Amino acid sequence: MKLGAITTIVCELCLAAATAFADDAAPTNAPPKPPTWDVSAAAGLTLTRGNSRTLLGTANVLAVKKWELNELDFGADGVYGESSGVRSAEQLHGFGQYNRMFTQRFYGYFRVDGLYDGVADIDYRVTVGPGVGYYLIKATNTTFRAEFGPGYIYEQDHDDGHRSYMTLRFAERFEQKITAVARIYESVEFLPQVDDFSNYIINSEAGVETAMSKKFSLLTYLQDWYHSDPAPGRLKNDVKLVSAVKYKF
């Protein structure tokens, strides 16, 4: 076989191999994977024995999903405590919120909150309402949003019976990633009764989270729930300082 023919064959083989490699490396037209839920859970436990006998356990679960122009947030948390055999805390709380983005920063929402507090004699408190929100800051490491809308509260107190009324909802939430492994956050929610502003609820929370590994982090937060018109014989303020271990699924 002549040298020219051999050279031609070799060049054709190299060209075929290069074409096949390029086809394998080229991006496919397969549709992108649908967004998944971002789910995390945290739990903390304080136990003392000796001169005092106390037990305090806390747990919470949070699920977030964002896709296209939609945002979904679901959460539930609970606390139970005893001091010298007497119940000192018994609370369950849950919420769900759907956001529909109109622009990159402006959105409408619908939110539902539910609360049970055995120590505060709240058999249930359900708050529902739509509203609008706006991201005042929406950056990679920082978010700050404000929300406003009407609401309605249905409440059953153990001693004071049933009551329901219209409210307004003013809320804000701030988050800041301060290092590659740490973030801080705070939120405040103000719910005044429409026809009686002396009756109002303020829910607030501030915390710091520090990652210990890819899945585990240490979460410390202060939670303050204030009701200007509590059940008879109960205090207006409930404060919890919680340290917990958080796991990200």
In a nutshell, what does this entry contain?
With 249 residues, this protein is mostly beta strands.
Counted up, domains total 1
- Per CATH, the class reads Mainly Beta
> Tell me about the biggest sheet?
12 strands, antiparallel, barrel
Q: What structural class results from the helix and strand content?
A: mainly beta
Strand order of the largest sheet: 1-2-3-4-5-6-7-8-9-10-11-12
Low-confidence runs: 1-11, 13-18, 20-27
Shape: globular
| Secondary structure: helix percent | under 10%
What is the number of E strands? Answer: 12
Give the second-level CATH assignment, the architecture.
Beta Barrel
* CATH fold label: Porin
Query: What is the fourth-level CATH superfamily?
Result: monomeric porin ompg
For this structure, the quaternary state is single chain
- Rounded to an integer in angstroms, the radius of gyration calculated over CA atoms is 27 Å
**Helix count?**
1
What descriptive keywords fit this protein?
single chain, 249 residues, mainly beta, Porin, 12-stranded antiparallel beta barrel, 1 helix, 12 strands
Question: What do these coordinates show?
Answer:
- With 249 residues, this protein is mainly β.
- The protein has one helix at residues 3-25, and strands at 38-48, 54-67, 70-83, 86-101, 106-117, 122-138, 142-157, 161-177, 182-193, 196-211, 216-227, 237-248.
- It has a single domain, classed as Beta Barrel (Porin), CATH 2.40.160.40.
- Helices cover 9% and strands 68% of the residues.
- A twelve-stranded antiparallel β-barrel has the order 1-2-3-4-5-6-7-8-9-10-11-12.
- The chain is globular and about 65 Å long.
- The termini are far apart.
